[in-house]
Design brief:
mainly alpha; about 100 residues; single chain; extended
Length: about 100
């Protein structure tokens, strides 16, 4: 690398950081909120899908088959962490 290359790299790095910083902050904030909800509150089906590492459609199918039990908060379906943990534990027992 020559001395001529260094300013371009530094310029590019600072440009990338300046452009991507708001996006990175938003992503970290999203994941922090998602983690908090998973630990201490209710999860929506997207969060359940992420937690189980499956698609949202699979979560819908698990509800339809009676394997997962959402609760209603007005018109919204939510899942408790305990109910999801019980489901995972039942899968572990069945796998033995």
């Amino acid at each position: 690398m020559t001395a001529h290359d260094t300013p371009e790299i530094e310029s590019t790095e600072s440009s990338i950081n300046a452009q991507t910083l708001p996006s990175l902050i938003e992503q970290v904030d999203h994941h922090a909120r998602s983690f908090y909800l998973r630990e201490d509150g209710l999860m929506n089906k997207r969060q359940v899908a992420e937690f189980l590492n499956v698609s949202v459609r699979t979560v819908d199918n698990l509800v339809a088959s009676g394997e997962l039990f959402p609760i209603r908060v007005r018109s919204a379906r939510r899942f408790t962490r305990k109910s999801i943990e019980r489901y995972v534990a039942s899968l572990e027992r069945a796998a033995r």
